[in-house]
Structures are given as C-alpha cells and as structure tokens.
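Quality-control log, excerpt.
Job 1 of 2 completed; input and output follow.
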Amino acid sequence: MNSPAVLFDVDGTLVDSTYLHVYAWQCAFDDVGVPISAWQLHRCIGMDGSMLVRTLSHDAPSEVQDRLSDAHGHYYREVSSRLAPLPGARELLHRVADLGLQVVLASSAPDDELDTLRKVLSCDDVIAETTSSRDVDTAKPDPGIVQVALDRAGVTAEQAVFVGDAVWDAQAAASAGLPCIGLLSGGISAAELAAAGAAPIFADPQDLLDHLDSTRIAALTTRR
C-alpha cells in the first residue's frame, strides 16, 4: 500500500506568483483591447486558464482567446525572475516527506510554468508526483486534476488531503471527496475559503507548518 499523500497546489500556495499572474493577464487583455481591472483578474486566478479567458473576454472569438493565452505566457515569463517561495514552503514540503507522506504537486500550470515553479521551490528531492495542464482538458474547479494526482500517488481520497489558496482548489478537492486546508497567501479571504469548503485555514505555508500537528496531515501519518 502506498503512503498517504498531501496534494499541494503550487501557484499562490507554495510560490508567491498570484499577483504576477494578475499583471501578466492584465497586460494580455490590454494587448487585445479588452482592458480588465486587476481586482477582476485576481478573482479568477487559480481557475482553469481557458475558463478565465472565456469568462473575462465574454466568449471572444477563438483567435482572440488564443492571443490572450499566448500573451499571458509571454508577460509571465518576463517577470518570472521575481518568483519566490512563500515563507516556509520548502520547509513544509520537507517536513511532510520526513513524516513518511507523499508530496504531490497537484498543479494545473502548463509544463513550462511548472518547470519554473519547481526550480524556484528547489525541492525535487522530496516531490513524489506532479500534474500539469496537459493531464486534463479542464482544470480547477473541475476535480479532474485532483483525481489524476490521487491516481499517480496510488491513494484514495481517504488517504489524502489537499492544500490550496483559492476557492477553486477547495471546490475541486470537495468534488473529488477529500478535505482541503486553506492558505491566505493567494489573497483570498478566510471567509470565502471557508465557504468553499476549506478548513482549517492558515496564513501561509509557515503558519501551516507551525500548526501541522493539529491538522489532517499529521493524522495521515497513522495510516501509513
């Protein structure tokens, strides 16, 4: 039997990237002449990228949607040097691995972005499995990426917990039947995360690490 798994979202959960995505999307929308306020973009960060584009472009023609996605990638790469791990992120991943649990990056980022995020984290030695956007047709809040992560870890929902920073993370986890620990590091309020099903909720990876013994993560160690 495989060890229980902790599934981690990456953007905004382990790496401080949320507002860089907001900037990149805002530049992309400006390029196609569809200005969008930063707060509107922030509300959609963590959502499936295609869904974000369709929603905020009001179902623009497919060529416009493709231009938006390509431009976002361009502007995001331009600012990727500003990416940094959130406080306690590396230590949290190592602690989870030290407990004998699998560390799974349940990300829906494109492969090139995920490669960059993994370099920023510099924790490949403790990462057991990963997912990316190519693994599903529709990302969060659809539960598909969570199910792929569970399958790759070889565990059931009862043997896992999800850690994320967005309402889309909590909704995807709930749809897949596993609990979600929420983090405020993506800029979403505790009330909204709780309403989406996240519990408990911590400020950032360091705060979660400081209180790890009181969470389901510690409880999973008894199921090894």
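Job 2 of 2 completed; input and output follow.
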Amino acid sequence: MSEYVIDTPPLVALPIAGMDALFPVRRVYCIGRNYAAHAIEMGHNPDREPPFFFQKNPNNLDPSGEFPYPPHTSDVHHEAEVAVMLKSGGTNIPIDEAESHIYGYALSLDMTRRDLQGEQKKMGRPWEIGKAFERSAPVGPIHRIEETGPLNEGALRLTVNGETRQEGDLNQMIWKVAEMISYLSEYFELAPGDVILSGTPSGVAAVERGDVMEISVEGLGSMSVKVF
C-alpha cells in the first residue's frame, strides 16, 4: 500500500556531459539585473546594490532543446545565462569557501514573458507569472567544475537565427558566483541539488515561433534551442 494519497511527482534531473548519471534538482534561484548594461537597458541604476533573487521551479528547467511559445503573452524575451549547480550547501557560507560547494555549470536561458512581468512590476506584485512558467529555463548538459575550473570569466554570446543579440563576459557580473552563493546562504539553507542562474548581459529581446536561439559560453560550448 502506498504511503502517499496521490502519485509522487517525477524527480527533476539533468544530464551531465560525459556521464550516464543525472543531477537531481532541488531549488532554482535566479539573480536579477546582475550585469550593469542589462540594468541600464531595463531602466535601472547600474551601481552595485544588494542583490535580489526570484525563483523558478525545478521542472521549469528543460534540456530538450525546444522552447514552446507560452500562452497569454505576445512579448517573450531571451536572457542568456550560466546555471551553477551545487553539490553541497549550508548557511552563512564564507565567500572564500563558496566555490567548494559547486558541482558544475551549464548553459541556460531565463525565458521571460516580459509583458506580464512588466504588469506585475507596475502593481508591485511577484514576477512568477512572467518567469516561472512551463519550460521557461532551457538548459544544456552540466559540465563538472573539475573539468572547467571555476568560471569567473569567459565570453558569453547569444544569437537568434544567426544574428548576435547578446554579448558579454562572465567577469562583468556585478555579483560574482561565490558572492551569490554566500549571500543566498544568509537567507536560505542551501543544499545539494540547488541551482543558481547567474544573470544576463544586455541585448535581451523578443523571440517568435520558428526562431532558433544559440547560446555559447567559453568553457561550456554552445546550445541551440528552437522556439515553436
């Protein structure tokens, strides 16, 4: 006899480059406006201020290479990011120990229903309707930190149908990965399986059905995602 009154939801797990084993996902934290140029294009101050985070759901992460255009929107934007996967966690993690908790990195997109997000901002409401919809975070295979080393710099680029939309470098992040881990651990108890999306450079823009997005980051290769 089952101990649960309904069927248990499937565990979200992501592929790892060169391995058959999968990475189980616990939580997904996303930092907002972590590149100065992106903060400016969104109409905000680019100065270093305390970071802020929102969350996506584990099952928003999608390694399929396809992105279904979501309902109730006419303005879906791409945001090219790097996902950071944690192998361990805790609270009040010192910055100089933060990188020891990283399992690896992956290419990712924070797809955003910008029109719906904008409406929520005007009303002072949470962003989830614009950020945490189904399959809103396309993600590539995870590359272990033992193979990549800590990724604190490296060119990031996103094209749509071959046209460059976003370009930047990981060293342009206002809050570096170690700082994000340390800061989050002051407010949450981080744990194995947690994922952090590290923000996007400028150049975010709308996509349409039929578009092909390609994101590349030095050290992580490239990933192609088709909008349908």
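Post-run check on job 2. Residues 177-187 form the longest helix (11 residues).
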